[in-house]
Amino acid sequence: MHNRQLMQFIRDIYAAKADAHQPVISFEFFPPKTDEGDRALLEKTIPALLRLKPDFCSVTYGAGGGTRDKTLMIVDRIQREHQLPTMLHLTCVNATREQLRDVIEQARSLGVKNILALRGDPPGGNGEFKMTDGGFEYSHQLVALLRELGGFSIGTAGFPEGHIACKEGKHVDWEHLKKKIDCGADFVVTQLFYNNADYFEFRDHLTKKLGASVPIFPGILPILSAGQIKRISALCGAKLPSRLVSCLEKLADNDEAAAAYGIDYATEQCAELLREGAPGLHMYTLNKAPSTIQVLKNLALAH
Questions:
Q1: pLDDT (0 to 100) of residue 116
Q2: How confident is the model at residue 166, as a pLDDT?
Q3: Per the residue annotation, which of 28, 43, 98, 161 is the catalytic one?
Q4: In angstroms, what CA-CA distances link 174 with 150, 188, 210, 248, 276?
Q5: Is position 128 annotated as part of the catalytic site?
Q6: Alpha-carbon torsion 100, 106, 107, 113, what sign?
Q7: What is the per-residue pLDDT across 234-285, written as a single tens digit (0 to 9) for each?
Q8: What's the mean pLDDT when you consider all of the chain?
């Protein structure tokens, strides 16, 4: 049983859940910077969240690909210790085609079946993306390499408000996403957003106008504090609705109250997304369990 579970592709997990009319629930983690952070994540946060019985989880790949070994270690530990399919994030930054092929084969040897193919952020997360000599300029090239090597369910990132670096606007960005799907991506995970209308417009444009037929999982980040969400939304270009901003301004000095409000807001957001046909929820946990646990309990999705 365990081995079969480890073998599951996200596209198959989605198909089974869709047949059962159930949402796919997944959690995202990032590699901590310290040994203490590793222990807290692996021994406390992940076990607490896995009690909710998610369908899969994912582990990010630091800016500039700087956390490669640690990312692989965390992915491997979750799969071995918890028998849960775990998606490896992989970026084109600071890597030649051959180096990317090496990481992909290393992942394969660890039993990884699911990879999120990303262009990625430059080291430090600042400045312009620069293509590595012998590497890739666009994530669709990484998708094509994964498809060529075979044996993976391939995900890609989607931006309901358009990618912050795409100066031509969101419709052009969505054309790029369709190209990634055509190259072999079989599901999309979105950037965080706080206005569901943006997700619905994005989904409908991709499916009805561009003819995409893959699941588009909304990425959800429950707000933990006013300062944190302003920083994160500025980095990724996610707009904050005015009612959200005015509530958070009142709670600027009270992180506990802001987190409670964040749980309520995320619960409302997720309930509407699921009601309107979203295939599941991809929760950006920021390596913390309480908000995600409470949102899923509120939605009666915690087992």
A1: 97
A2: 85
A3: 28
A4: 25, 12, 9, 31, 21
A5: no
A6: positive
A7: 888 889 999 898 998 899 899 999 999 999 999 999 999 999 999 999 999 9
A8: 91
Instruction: With a cut of 80, say whether residue 128 has pLDDT above it.
Output: no
Q: What's the rounded Cα separation, in Å, for the pair 273 and 187?
A: 17
CB atoms within 10 A of CB 70: 17
Instruction: Identify the pLDDT of residue 122.
Output: 57
pLDDT at position 125 over 50: yes
**Could you tell me the pTM of the whole model?**
0.94
> What is the set of domains in the chain, with CATH numbers?
2-298 (3.20.20.220)
DSSP string, the chain: -HHHHHT--HHHHHHHHHHTT--EEEEEE---SSHHHHHHIIIIIHHHHHTT--SEEEE---GGGTTHHHHHHHHHHHHHHH---EEEEEE-TT--HHHHHHHHHHHHHTT--EEEEE--PPGGG-S---PPTTS-SSHHHHHHHHHHH-S-EEEEEE-TT--TT-TT-HHHHHHHHHHHHHTT--EEEEEE-S-HHHHHHHHHIIIIIS---S-EEEEE-----HHHHHHHHHHHT----HHHHHHHHHTTT-HHHHHHHHHHHHHHHHHHHHHTT--EEEEE-TT--HHHHHHHHHTT---
The residue that leads in pLDDT, 200 or 126, is 200
Rounded Cα gap, residues 262 and 256, in angstroms: 10
